[in-house]
Amino acid sequence: MLRITAWVWPSSRPSRACMAAPHLPGHATATMRSASSCRPANTSQAPRRSARAGDPSAPIRAPPSTTWERSLFERPHRLILLALAMGAGTASAHDFLLLPSAFRVDGTQPITLQATVASSFPTPEIVVPADRTERLAAFGPGQPQLRITGPVDKGLQLEVRGAQAGILVATAAIKPRDVDYAEDRIPLILGEYRVAPAAAAAVEALPRPRTWQVVSRRFAKATVCVADCRDRSAAERPTGVALEFVAAAGVSATYILLADGLPLVNHPVDLVDRQGHRAHLATDEKGKVDLGEAPRGPSMLFAARLQPPAGSGRFLLDLSTFVLDR
C-alpha cells in the first residue's frame, strides 16, 4: 500500500544548502570542519545561496509555480499522481546519481553511464571527480566490469563491458566527508533531507548556537536492461552499501529500502519523475515502497538516513539514489 507522508508546495520548499558536496575543480565546497563558510555574507541584502552542488556562489533556483487543472480534483486519481502534484515542483535539490546513456541496450556495444551531481533529474549537471569516487562496480548476468573512461561535459563517464542478457546494476559512491552546518543552515538541511523524527529531534536538541557536525556518505545505483529484461536477480540483491534500494523479488513495481542490509521500515522516500517532479512517499512496515501507480518512464528513488552519535561526535548522514526506467 502506498503511503504519502508529506505535502510540500513548490513555492514553499527551501533548497538544500551547504551540503557535503564533492570537491569540484573551480568550485568552492561546503564547510569542512568550518562553520563560518556555510553562512552567507549578508543575508539581509543577498539572496540565500547554496553550496550543495559545490558552488556557494550559485543562487538557489526556486521551482517554477505550477497551475493544476481543475480536473485533477474533480475525479478520482491515483494517490501517487496526487503526491507528485502536491508534493513537488521541479526538483532543485542536487543529488549524486548514475545516469545511463540508455536504459535499454542490445548488449552488442559497451554500456555507458555518467556519475553526476544534478538538480533537475534526469539532466546531468556537474562532473564528479574520479578521485572522489569509490565502490564502482557492476552486477548482473555475465561478467560485467565497470571502469572510468574520463570526464565528459557534465559527468564522469563510466563504461561497462561483459554484461549479458538481463538487468545490469551499476553502483558508485562518493568518499565520506566531514561537514559542519552552522545554526542558520540546519533548518534548511533538515527541511530537504527527510529523516526519521527521532534523528531530527536529536539535531534539535543540540546546544544553541548549534554547529551540526556530520559525516556524509553518498551512494548511487542505476539499472539497465540488456537485451532481455526477464533476469532481474541482480536488481534484487543488495550490493553491500549502508543505504540502498533493491527490487522486491517477483514484483516488478515494488522496491525495498535497506539500511545495513535490513529493511528500513516507515521511512521517508522521494520519487522523482522524468520532469523532475518530486513526490514524498514512505516505506511500509516491511520496508517496501510500491510504484505501481507511478507514471512510467525514467525515475529516481531517493532516501536519507541520519544516525546520531552515541555520545559526542558527528552524526552519520547516508544519502542514496536509485535510477531506473519503468
Task: Describe the fold and architecture.
It is a single chain. By secondary structure, the chain is mainly beta. It has one domain (95-325). The chain is built from five helices and 18 strands. β17 (298-307) and β18 form a beta hairpin. It is globular and about 60 Å long.
Summarize the structure in short.
The chain is mostly beta strands and 326 residues long. It contains five helices and 18 strands.
Distance between the termini: 18 Å
Structural class: mainly beta
Tally of individual domains: 1
| Helix share bin | under 10%
Unreliable parts: 1-91
Tertiary shape: globular
Please write the string of helix (H) and strand (E) elements. Answer: EHHEEEEEEEEHHEHEEEEEEEE
Largest sheet: 9 strands, mixed
Total beta strands = 18
Mean pLDDT metric: 79
Percent range for β-strand residues = 35-45%
Number of helices: 5
Rg (CA only): 19 Å
Organism: Rubrivivax albus
InterPro entries: DUF4198 (IPR019613)
Protein name: DUF4198 domain-containing protein
Region (Disordered): 30-65
Helix and strand topology:
Layout (H helix, E strand, L loop, with lengths): L2 E2 L66 H4 L4 H9 L7 E6 L3 E2 L5 E8 L7 E2 L5 E7 L2 E10 L4 E8 L2 E17 L3 H7 L4 H8 L6 E16 L6 H4 L6 E5 L6 E6 L2 E2 L4 E5 L5 E5 L5 E3 L7 E10 L7 E11 L1
Parallel strand pairs: 3-10, 10-18
Antiparallel strand pairs: 1-15, 2-4, 4-5, 4-8, 6-9, 7-8, 9-10, 11-12, 12-13, 12-16, 14-15, 14-17, 17-18
Based on the model shown, name its key terms:
disordered N terminus, 5 helices, 5-stranded antiparallel sheet, 18 strands, mainly beta, 326 residues, globular
